[in-house]
C-alpha cells in the first residue's frame, strides 16, 4: 500500500490540526489542551476521581494524575478524600478553576463551532459514524 493511500495519515493530520487550533484557543487562559479537557470533564462530572477523568479525557491514569497535580498547583482544582473510600480522591473545580474554564471554553467552542459549520447536519452525522467505524475496526481483538 502506497503512503498516499493510507487513511491513518489523514486522520492524524486532522487530529493534529484540531489540537493546534484548540491549543491556540485555550492558551490565553493559561491552559494546555489536556488541562482544558480535564476542566471540561470536571465541569460536567464534579467530584470525579482521576481514573474516571482519565477515561473521559482519553488518557492514562498516570497522565491524568500529573495534569491534576498541575491544576492543583495553579489553584484551579481541589482534591479531597472520598468519605467512604479514603484512598479515592475527589476532584472539583475551585472558583478560580471555574472562571478559567469558562474563559477557555468560550474560545474552544469557537474552534468546535467552526469545524461543525464546515459540514451539514447530515455530513456531521456521517463523519461521526465513519470515525466510530474506524475506532471499532481498530479496537477489534
Features:
single chain; 141 residues; mainly alpha; two-stranded antiparallel ribbon; 6 helices; globular
Short description:
Helix content is 67%, strand content 7%. The protein is mainly alpha-helical. Helix 2 (33-44) packs across helix 5 (95-117) and helix 3 packs across helix 4.
Could you explain the architecture of this structure?
- This protein is mainly α and 141 residues long.
- Helices cover 67% and strands 7% of the residues.
- It has six helices and two strands; from the N terminus they run ααααββαα.
- The chain has a two-stranded antiparallel sheet with strand order 1-2.
- The longest helix has 23 residues, at 95-117.
- The model has no long low-confidence stretch (mean pLDDT 93).
- This is MarR family transcriptional regulator.
- InterPro entries: HTH_MarR-typ (IPR000835), MarR/SlyA-like (IPR039422), WH-like_DNA-bd_sf (IPR036388), WH_DNA-bd_sf (IPR036390).
- It holds the Pfam family MarR_2.
| Distance N to C terminus | 23 Å
Helix amount, in percent?
A: 55-70%
* Continuous helix count: 6
C-alpha Rg, in Å?
17 Å
The main pleated sheet reads as: 2 strands, antiparallel
Number of strands: 2
Elements, N to C (H/E): HHHHEEHH
Strand content: 5-15%
Shape: globular
Strand order of the largest sheet: 1-2
Low-confidence stretches: none
Secondary structure elements and pairings:
Blueprint: H1 7-26, H2 33-44, H3 50-56, H4 61-73, E1 77-81, E2 89-93, H5 95-117, H6 121-139
Antiparallel strand pairs: 1-2
Helix pairs in contact: 1-5, 2-5, 3-4
